[in-house]
Amino acid sequence: MKKIIKFISGKLFITCILILMQIIAYFMMFYHISRYSPYIYGFITFLSLFFAFRTATGDLQSDFKAIWIFFLISVPIFSWIIYIIIRKKKISSRNKKFSEQINKNIIIPKDVSLLNHVNDESIRKQINYIVSTTEHSVYNETITRFFPTGESFFKSLESSLEKAEKFIFLEYFIINKGNVWDRIYNILKTKAENGVEIRILYDDIGTVNLLPYGFRKNLEKHGIKSARFNPLAPYPDISINCRDHRKIAVIDGKYAYTGGINLSDEYSNEKERFGVWKDYGILIEGKAVKEMTAMFLKMWDYNIGKIEKNPNKYFNDYVSENNGVVIPFGADPSKTENTVKNAYFNMISSARKYVYITTPYLIPDSEIVSALKLASKSGIDVRIIVPHIPDKWYVDAVTKANYDSLIKSGIRIYEYKYGFIHAKSVISDDKSAIIGTANFDYRSFYYLFENLVFLYGTNSVNEIKSDFLKTMSESIEISKKDIENRSYIKKAYYSFMKFFSIFM
Questions:
Q1: How many domains does the chain fold into?
Q2: Structural domain that includes position 80
């Protein structure tokens, strides 16, 4: 009962109710007017057809066009609002100009000379793609350390935070009160007292109803700066769908952490939510840390509306030993380039022996599905691990709806039987891997700010593969027979839920 009362009195619930009331009011107003005015009815019909035409001729994936057209024509007004919110990717001209100023202010010169030392043609193409379509560069003299669990990740992160002497930058989708945050917060307070500059950036929807009242004021009391990404507004906001899904920790420009792990107890299994929580993290140490620092600074400046006076002081020329090629890179939904999807696509289509994928949500668009099927039918060993215990029933239904066609194409799908796997990774041919924050779903491909790390020839690649195989042995393989034995009701349910995959 206490949880229910807490939920209905929380910011998210109240905001959603206010937005819903406004949408219903708009709908009723237009509906009432249209009953008495054929002109209004005609106007509504015209707008429905206009939005449908834009969808049919736009750059939206073909498998989603029919769904959108159906909603836009059959449920006018309400669907228009949802369409504008869901499809909103571009930022305003004013914000775009400011963003360009930030990018000009925070510049790391690109160095592509390492490409001359990469003999593999498919790897060169992937590196070229990432470097040419983003502001990021390619690095050596960088070591990486892979963490197969949240427990090992937090142990290392807390140790690095303890070593901080100059600055700590934290950017997370979720920060939740509990043991993990308490330990990190105590370190941050001590460091702030000792003169270490600390900045924390978090997504407002990701943390809604999770943080205690006065969270930011308490941070400021200890000299810790903070900012919220895209604060939740009590009205229909066309930018609400764009969220900061990144997980970044940068310490002194020497160490940078990322992966699927947020600052919350379930990620270290100190609190059980969906059985065992399985996740991946990675530490970068050396030259490539500069890219993670730049990513944070750009997002921070954009959120607070100020240009960094001297960003170069945060870039450390710290050089580590040489261990392969490392490219930290980000994805920006305001841009037309679908960096996440295309980087994954390149990994799948260029594989020669195998491609192994871990993802909590398997909701790929038609292009990724085609790439997966083609790879499998061409003799490539394609395996995917997803959760057995889901965190969202509706996403799980759409994930399972995709099993049928993938398995029939020879792709092997496993469900991590002990709980929920939140790790996001792609490994191929014992050579390369991508690890980071992006899921195999429509939202990560098109609407979320993400950050990833491309690895080639590093020790971490083999470590990720080894853990994948270990996790696979702890998973249940889904067979053709399992799909065929589904009841007609379950098959119909999964197919129906897949209809709404564009919203997930």
A1: 3
A2: 2-87
pLDDT at residue 492 above 60?
yes
The CATH number covering residue 180 comes to 3.30.870.10
Rg of the chain over CA atoms, in angstroms?
A: 23
- Alpha-carbon distances of 106 from 6, 288, 314, 440, rounded to whole Å: 42, 15, 11, 30
The residue-averaged pLDDT of 339-357 equals 96
- What are phi and psi for residue 143, nearest 5 degrees? -110, 150
Residue 47 C-alpha from the chain's centroid: 33
Cβ contact 168:188 at 8 Å: yes
Evaluate if residue 259 carries a pLDDT over 90. Answer: yes
**DSSP H helical segments within 110-244, as ranges?**
121-133, 150-162, 179-193, 215-221
Please name which of 431, 433, 462 lies closest in space to residue 353, comparing C-alpha atoms.
431
Q: d(Cα 221, Cα 239) in Å, to the nearest integer?
A: 31
Centroid of chain to Cα 64: 20
**203 and 58 share a domain?**
no
Give how far Cα 187 sits from Cα of 160, 184, 216, 219, 305, Å.
10, 5, 17, 12, 28
CA dihedral (46, 47, 48, 52) positive or negative: positive
> In what helix (H) or strand (E) does residue 200 lie, and over which residues does it extend?
strand 197-203
Q: Mean pLDDT over residues 424-431, rounded?
A: 97
